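Handover notes (outgoing to incoming on-call)

Open items:
1. DNA topoisomerase III: sequence verified, structure written out, both below. Nothing else pending on this one.
2. Nothing else urgent.
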Amino acid sequence: MINKRQQEIKNFKPTPFFELEAQFTFENGVYKGRYKERFTTKGELMNLLQQHNLSENNSQQGIFIWTPLYFLHTS
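DNA topoisomerase III structure tokens:
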């Protein structure tokens, strides 16, 4: 069992991915959240943003930080 795990670790190949992280502003403060799924291509991430009327605010290689075009207010 240990040998099998060691072999898995040895054969591990890192895969690049994209994450969606956003900052939400509410009346009583700011909340930073991360989308639960990862994207294998930037195109997949951009499609999600277009579907929800979001735009890129700031980005870093491998990690993209996004802010909604409109503010969400909850009461």
